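Progress note, sequence design subtask.
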């Protein structure tokens, strides 16, 4: 999976779902902790944009990074930071978690009363 460093690849929710199920990418959510806690894509790592540093992203050549946020705006900002720092990414989730939900793909959250993970569609 190669990308032109000057062009941000827009990955659709369905494409990302396949990539995640095949363990092909690492998903990094750049929303804030409260947003992440309320609903997230299973397997996503948290790296809030407010303290985002591309140097701390996981680096595994076999699993490129895909960035994700709420609507696609913050992940584009994080992607620009990665490009400027020379940290390669595969792209970002077009439309963010909003598009993911519109595609009827599952999210998870924590039940505050029990602490258990709850899957939602």
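Output:
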């Amino acid at each position: 999976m190669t990308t032109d460093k000057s062009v941000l690849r827009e990955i659709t929710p369905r494409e990302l779902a396949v990539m995640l199920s095949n363990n092909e990418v690492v998903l990094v959510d750049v929303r804030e902790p409260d947003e992440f806690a309320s609903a997230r894509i299973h397997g996503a790592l948290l790296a809030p944009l407010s303290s985002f540093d591309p140097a701390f992203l996981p680096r595994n050549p076999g699993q490129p990074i895909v960035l994700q946020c709420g609507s696609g705006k913050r992940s584009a900002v994080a992607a620009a930071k990665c490009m400027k720092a020379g940290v390669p990414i595969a792209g970002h989730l077009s439309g963010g978690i909003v598009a993911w939900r519109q595609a009827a793909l599952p999210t998870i959250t924590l039940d505050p009363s029990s602490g258990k993970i709850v899957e939602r569609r």
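DSSP finds four helices and seven strands in the chain. Work on this subtask will continue into the next period as scheduled.
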